[in-house]
Amino acid sequence: MSAVFRRAASNASRTRLFSSSATARKDLVQDLYLKEIKAYKPAPVPQNAHVGLVKQYSPPPAPKAPTLPSDISVELSEYSSSEPAGIAPTTTSSASAHAFGGEDNAGNVSGADAYLGFLEQDLPKREEHHH
C-alpha cells in the first residue's frame, strides 16, 4: 500500500507545479503601482497662481514718421562739393582710368581688364618627359 500512496503523492505534486490559476499570475508590484496611481489626486491650482510670474504686456510706443529737411537743395550742393574721405587727390584722367580697370602711367593693364585677360589665356601645355 505504501507504493500506492507514494504514486498518488508524486502525481499530485506534479500537477501542482504547473498550476495556471489566477492567483499565481498576480504581480504585487504592478498592483501596488496601479492602486497608488488611481488614488493620486493632484493639488488644485489657485486662481491667481500666475501673479508675479508673468509680466504685464504694454505695447511699444508708436514710431514717429520721418521728416524731410526743409533746405534739401543746400544739403545736396554741400554733398556734391565735398571730397570723399580717405582718397588722395590725383589727376582726374588717370584716377578714373585706374578706378575702372584701365592702364596706369607705365602702360600696365590692371583691374577688371587684367583679370579678364588672365581668364582668356590658354592653359600652358604639359611637357612630356621622355627618359
What does it look like?
The longest helix has 16 residues, at 2-17. The relative contact order is 0.03. The chain has helices at 2-17, 28-39, 72-81, 92-99, 112-120. With 131 residues, the chain is mainly α. Residues 79-106 are annotated as: Disordered. One of its GO terms (molecular function) is proton-transporting ATP synthase activity, rotational mechanism. Residues 88-97 have a biased composition (Low complexity). This is ATP synthase complex subunit H-domain-containing protein.
Descriptive tags:
proton-transporting ATP synthase activity, rotational mechanism, 5 helices, single chain, ATP synthase complex subunit H-domain-containing protein, mainly alpha, ATP_synth_F0_suH, 131 residues
Largest sheet: number of strands, sense, barrel closure: none
Strand content: under 5%
Distance between the termini: 112 Å
Number of strands: 0
Helix content: 40-55%
Structural class: mainly alpha
Shape: flat
How many helix segments? Answer: 5
Give the arrangement of secondary structure elements.
Layout: H1 2-17, H2 28-39, H3 72-81, H4 92-99, H5 112-120
